[in-house]
Every structure is written in C-alpha cells, then in structure tokens.
Amino acid sequence: MAEIIDDLDRKILQLLQVDSTIGVVELGEKIGLSHNACWRRIRRLQKMGIIASQVALLDRKKVELSVTVFVFVRTSQHDDKWLERFSHGISEMPEVVEFHRLSGELDYILKLHVQDIEDYDRVYKQLIRIAPLSDVSSSFSMEEIKYTTALPV
Predict the structure, then answer these.
(1) d(Cα 31, Cα 11) in Å, to the nearest integer?
(2) CATH fold of 7-47, please?
(3) Segments of the chain assigned to CATH 3.30.70.920
C-alpha cells in the first residue's frame, strides 16, 4: 500500500463496516473529527481503493436462500483454457457467492446459497456441464456459527 492509513482511518473503516449508511456528521462525532475532515478521509480511502464499494447486505433466509452449500471440486485439467471456461461458467451462476482456487488436494471450493436440496441439485447439474471435472463433492452447512463481512483493520 503506497499510502499509509492511521488510527483515525482505521476507526472510520471499522464503523463503516458495521453501518455504511452512517452520516458523515455522526461518524465524525464518534471519532472526534469535523465532518469535513471525516469526509476528506473517506474520499481518500475510496480513491486508495481501500473502500472498494458500499452495498446492502441481505438476510439470506428472508429471501428464501436458507441452505448454504460448500462444493469441493477436483479437476485433472489445469491449463489456461480450461480455467477460463470454468471461471466464466462459475461467474455466471448467481448462487455461487464465493469461488476460490486452493492449494493441496482440492482444486476449488465454492460457497453457494440455495433454497433447498432440490435447488442445489439444479445448480449441481449446471456446474457439471461447465467444464470437465474429476470429482465434485458437497457439504451442507448445519449451523452458521460466525458470519461477518468486516475485516479486522
């Protein structure tokens, strides 16, 4: 990171991660800055790319996506063309909320939110049509013990 962030920047980031709709005046009051100074810092953090975006987080159960599935994928193909095809196909699937390439025995892990088992089966059938895969296995989350989008800054 070319520019350094200080403790005031960190406090701003912590508060915005909890509630990005907080007003600049209230935010400034909480950290002991004028609203103008607070606004300038937020703009600087945005220009630096530290604040990447501001979004609304939905309650997945209230939008009928109560089942979380972790899908583990192995492949015997590791060339660029295969990866491009697979990545593009996964990116087109709205049920996939996270997609990671791994080291170790497994090649990829996907995190999905679906309505139920039947909905997962529909998504699974889409997944296996995208590109040749050696193995696909799934685990269903029984209980979400911790969930946060806040990074420890």
Answers:
(1) 7
(2) Arc Repressor Mutant, subunit A (1.10.10)
(3) 67-140
Count other Cβ atoms within 10 Å, centred on residue 113.
23
pLDDT band at 1 (very low <50, low <70, confident <90, very high): very low
How many whole angstroms separate alpha carbon 98 and alpha carbon 33?
37
- Positive or negative: CA dihedral 87, 92, 93, 97: positive
Q: How far is CA 42 from CA 7, 33, 137, in A?
A: 13, 12, 43
- Tokens 């593009």 belong to which residue? 88
Whole-angstrom distance, CA of residue 131 vs CA of residue 88? 10
| Structure confidence at residue 2 as a pLDDT band (50, 70, 90) | low
Q: pLDDT digit string (tens) for 32-82?
A: 999 999 999 999 999 999 999 999 999 999 999 999 999 999 999 999 999
pTM of structure: 0.88
CB 73 within 8 A of CB 107: yes
b/e map 3-24, b = 16+ CB within 10 Å: eebeeebebbbeebeeeeeeeb
